[in-house]
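Dear support,

We are seeing what looks like truncated structure output for some complexes. This example has two components. We would appreciate it if you could run it in full and send us the complete token output so we can diff it against ours.
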Amino acid sequence: MWAEGESEGLQTLGIVVVVCSSLKLLHYLGLIDLSDDKIEDELEMTMVCHRPEGLEQLEAQTNFTKRELQVLYRGFKNECPSGVVNEDTFKQIYAQFFPHGDASTYAHYLFNAFDTTQTGSVKFEDFVTALSILLRGTVHEKLRWTFNLYDINKDGYINKEEMMDIVKAIYDMMGKYTYPVLKEDTPRQHVDVFFQKMDKNKDGIVTLDEFLESCQEDDNIMRSLQLFQNVM
Amino acid sequence: MAAGLATWLPFARAAAVGWLPLAQQPLPPAPGVKASRGDEVLVVNVSGRRFETWKNTLDRYPDTLLGSSEKEFFYDADSGEYFFDRDPDMFRHVLNFYRTGRLHCPRQECIQAFDEELAFYGLVPELVGDCCLEEYRDRKKENAERLAEDEEAEQAGDGPALPAGSSLRQRLWRAFENPHTSTAALVFYYVTGFFIAVSVIANVVETIPCRGSARRSSREQPCGERFPQAFFCMDTACVLIFTGEYLLRLFAAPSRCRFLRSVMSLIDVVAILPYYIGLLVPKNDDVSGAFVTLRVFRVFRIFKFSRHSQGLRILGYTLKSCASELGFLLFSLTMAIIIFATVMFYAEKGTNKTNFTSIPAAFWYTIVTMTTLGYGDMVPSTIAGKIFGSICSLSGVLVIALPVPVIVSNFSRIYHQNQRADKRRAQQKVRLARIRLAKSGTTNAFLQYKQNGGLEDSGSGEEQALCVRNRSAFEQQHHHLLHCLEKTTPVGPGSLLSSCCPRRAKRRAIRLANSTASVSRGSMQELDMLAGLRRSHAPQSRSSLNAKPHDSLDLNCDSRDFVAAIISIPTPPANTPDESQPSSPGGGGRAGSTLRNSSLGTPCLFPETVKISSL
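Here is the complete output from our reference environment:
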């Protein structure tokens, strides 16, 4: 009895296997359609392509000459043929300049500072405008740009947390191989020193005016601002 | 992206403004930036094709030829462009690398030409972009393999050039490995082959049933038992020869341990051992069973043929190199066998008088079915058994067919490699013969030059016609150089040479004078090339008589370099009195004024005479 039951069971199994495989075969041959999912055409990501405004307009808006703009644009276009830079590219560039540490956080803040319209991509005009400020701008403009960089949430004030983030990002960029080896709370001490200097009314936040005032009082900063003048 | 790192430098430096307020220490002063001239367009002329590019583009990679000041060496002030005498098609790829940051590999060019261009322009091959990297590596590996075979073939084919002081052992070993080196080796090779064949045939024949001369025995006996003496004698003879051969090989082997472990020696041992074991073992009944088993091993003598046949060796090598595929095949087959055997056993369990008595018994059915043999000694009778049996046979075909193409392609590759090696060896022989001819041609030209006193613009022009006619500036300088070298050394300068082989030289010179010029120029390049490739090959022409091999080697290396130097610094050919009077052999030899070309360095003072006429 038992043997018969077994063989019957196996018989059934065998028949089931045969039927299933023939169905599958027919499906592969395209004669019947078993599946529910439709073939979705993936929309191809259209290439975002952006062209900058005319050369004369840019020349008027920035402090660069036509030739300098040409050189800048050629380099820019070579690197980003689509005409826009996105955050990943920023991070890559920075990672190559500072290979010892992790430059991605700082690059993120930098990108946000460049991307004035918060669109997620930096066009050539934004790029050139920011460069113009940083390289050819007045002291006032540079400091204001720096304030904008530090102000992560763009609310007009720098508080201690934002400063901590920035300082940590910079320290991350340095990497672990510093001499002497930095201790864990060095960033915190650094921020405290900075706040003591900048925060005039000790209310825990630094406004733009406090920032400008404190920086202009500091000779070191004033002198250093001249350093990055002649880069082009 | 490294291409553009320089482009982004202004951006990175500008963004550093963000660190300023945080800086705890004063920042270092900025490096002085020289006033940039703005971007200018450079013209690079490569063999006539003009490429124009921005200077900035080339400056992106300052450690290459075009990016560094090295290109100033190629600057032509008259035309204001950089001129390179290289392939313009390849240059296109190089320049594109500067432009896009990716180096692409041209599909239709020879990979070695591409490598040479890269080396010239200072680009490392690692710069090849990811898109082309795999193909580049594959082609390069293929090329390298082929060249390695070349060298191996050359070294192996250097059989004829036997080192002078080889011992009996080395000669014997070479005779064993390359039977074509001497007649004795060839004879030995064929004799052993013959005896292997005889032994194998004897093994086979002695099992054939012979009809007895007397019809009285109804039972037929195998021949081995009818003529035991004859077969024993044949066996003894064969084993003696094999033993002798094995011992000789053992003696001659350069590394005995390695030889003992090699496959061929193991086969040899296995082939002759059964005989000796059979001799030693007494004719007991219980042991003779084992003795009979040992006879089976005699069939391994057939593997000794692999020394004689290259095809067998290739097959063995292929199987070895496909070990992983074979292993996979085996493993998957085992898995499938176990699965199907189990299923078939349970499917057929209920049937009466079934062959499928156990799962291992079902293994046999599964193997026979999967390899599509189908003996028919075991067949399923239930429906389920038949269904699963058919699935089993279908899957067997698939599983076995999968690894086979891999094995086949491996075999084909190795086989073609061997064929290529053979073809190349044949070509090498022809080439070497031609080189030898060219060498003797130039030698004779030099002799002619010397016999005519070495003066080419002297008044006596009657006999000059033969040798002066086709002499190029290069040849003149070359001969002058050789002559200078002769004068440097205490050799009896033309006298020894001309006295010892004047007639032969003259005859050959006259025959070859016409061909000398054309052959010599064509094969001078071959000679140069060969010398560049294989500097260790000492010249085999007839006149390296007393030279120590090492000294003539130095001569060769030196003279070739200096010829180049001489061409570029045109020195007037010698027209000095000392060449017409040979200096005496014993005297100092140095007569310094013969050294026109100071780049000869210290003149070589050989303790014994050296014939210079060999190149």
